Amino acid sequence: MPVPPRARGEAHVRAELSMVTRKISLPVQQFIYAEQASGLSLLIGTVVALVWVNSPWDHVYRQLWETVLTIDLNVFQISMDAHHWVNEGLMVLFFFLMGLEIKRELVHGQLSNWRQAALPAIAALGGMILPILIYLVFTWNSEGARGWGIPMATDIAFALGLLALLGSRIPRELKIFLIAFAIVDDIGGVLVIALFYTGELSLGAIGVALALIVFWLGLRQIEIQNRGIYAFIAILFWLAVLKSGIHPTIAGVIIGLLTPTHRYYQYGEFTYYAGRLVKEAQEAIQQGEHERTSMLLGQLEELTRYTEESVERLERLIRPWVSYCVLPIFALANAGIVLSLEGFEKALESSVALGILVALIVGKYVGILGSSWLAIRLKWAALPPHVSWSHMSGVALLGGIGFTVALFITSLAFEATPLVSEAKIAIFIASIAAGLLGYFFLFLYAPRPPLQEQELDDKQKKTVWAVILSWLCARK
């Protein structure tokens, strides 16, 4: 995603005061919000895990993630190994960000209008249903059938990162389509985790969680705006969901969906009140009233904060932490599998691995492209401007990158069984194959956007005229 305007504005103010900010912070900020960098951090975590677990120090890797960490506050106790703390604690932030993105798209984005949402929604449904059916064909009446949710998810970080590498070859509308498609895909993944990959339910804990949601909504109704209170309720809600038997990452999605999308002060209101405060501050400065000036500036600062939507602010603050901390640690904890020729041969003989491979590489492609074609054929939707069927084919191939959520569902479906390593190997192979196929297909066959072609033609014309003028000057 591009650098959010608020973050860009804050950085420019700091740049006026510091040469270090101008020379270092601004370029770093551009890097932090780049799609390529987000996918790169996830890739680095994966590579480190694979190298570590296949090195002489593999026992250290296993000891690290088997280390038990306990929080005991007398009222309640949580005791989990480090691997579960990552998957059930740290990953809550990833799913919270997912909830914020879903809320934003439903209210302001592609999913807020049915005509705009129809194509990505139908494409996502086709890209979930067909892979599930293909996987079940391979694993029916076996222990592996429990992993039917693995091939349904697309890893948006890797897919968007690869699209970003293509630069101007790809129309902006295709990126928007992929984001909307991924949001619907995420909704499907969240529902599957919540409904089908939960433990034994505790009605008491579920009751507490529901009471906390009602309390949260009540605070919103009376317009309590203290973010610390909401953060405290969110932690209690996560604890209640953890104890309920429902996977605790669902708490992150729910909190994200409960986050308000409206501004407390619209821009017009802000300029009116801010103008009055600035005028009063000028008078206070002239009269030497430093304490009153500080108070007025404090009001102005608070007023400025409330012109930003809570969803926008939280997404801006949390995204870098999720991209460069949460996801790499998740990859480090979950991508550690022993790579050997024997292991690959065993995996490829497994119905689970074959099901995942065919479902992600073939099922995703046929499901996304076929359902999109059917929706347009039936006139339920239309292709976005500047997007061709070649573009759609490339995105359908990229849809087979099922890394983060696929690994996550693998850990839920096959925990502490030999099927985990077989599934992970298949996810790696399928994701790499889908990524390479999608990237090179778009690079070789996707037409450039017309606007880009026009800009290139203009540049070429200017170059030609410059050469002609130079030649004429030389003749004179």
TrEMBL record:
<dbReference type="Pfam" id="PF06965">
    <property type="entry name" value="Na_H_antiport_1"/>
</dbReference>
<keyword id="KW-1133">Transmembrane helix</keyword>
<feature type="transmembrane region" description="Helical">
    <location>
        <begin position="396"/>
        <end position="414"/>
    </location>
</feature>
<feature type="transmembrane region" description="Helical">
    <location>
        <begin position="321"/>
        <end position="341"/>
    </location>
</feature>
<comment type="function">
    <text>Na(+)/H(+) antiporter that extrudes sodium in exchange for external protons.</text>
</comment>
<comment type="similarity">
    <text>Belongs to the NhaA Na(+)/H(+) (TC 2.A.33) antiporter family.</text>
</comment>
<keyword id="KW-0050">Antiport</keyword>
<feature type="transmembrane region" description="Helical">
    <location>
        <begin position="426"/>
        <end position="446"/>
    </location>
</feature>
<keyword id="KW-0406">Ion transport</keyword>
<keyword id="KW-0915">Sodium</keyword>
<dbReference type="GO" id="GO:0006885">
    <property type="term" value="P:regulation of pH"/>
</dbReference>
<keyword id="KW-0813">Transport</keyword>
<dbReference type="GO" id="GO:0005886">
    <property type="term" value="C:plasma membrane"/>
</dbReference>
<keyword id="KW-0812">Transmembrane</keyword>
<feature type="transmembrane region" description="Helical">
    <location>
        <begin position="231"/>
        <end position="258"/>
    </location>
</feature>
<protein>
    <recommendedName>
        <fullName>Na(+)/H(+) antiporter NhaA</fullName>
    </recommendedName>
</protein>
<dbReference type="GO" id="GO:0015385">
    <property type="term" value="F:sodium:proton antiporter activity"/>
</dbReference>
<keyword id="KW-0997">Cell inner membrane</keyword>
<feature type="transmembrane region" description="Helical">
    <location>
        <begin position="148"/>
        <end position="167"/>
    </location>
</feature>
<feature type="transmembrane region" description="Helical">
    <location>
        <begin position="176"/>
        <end position="197"/>
    </location>
</feature>
<feature type="transmembrane region" description="Helical">
    <location>
        <begin position="203"/>
        <end position="219"/>
    </location>
</feature>
<feature type="transmembrane region" description="Helical">
    <location>
        <begin position="31"/>
        <end position="53"/>
    </location>
</feature>
<keyword id="KW-0739">Sodium transport</keyword>
<keyword id="KW-1003">Cell membrane</keyword>
<feature type="transmembrane region" description="Helical">
    <location>
        <begin position="353"/>
        <end position="376"/>
    </location>
</feature>
<dbReference type="InterPro" id="IPR023171">
    <property type="entry name" value="Na/H_antiporter_dom_sf"/>
</dbReference>
<feature type="transmembrane region" description="Helical">
    <location>
        <begin position="121"/>
        <end position="142"/>
    </location>
</feature>
<keyword id="KW-0472">Membrane</keyword>
<dbReference type="InterPro" id="IPR004670">
    <property type="entry name" value="NhaA"/>
</dbReference>
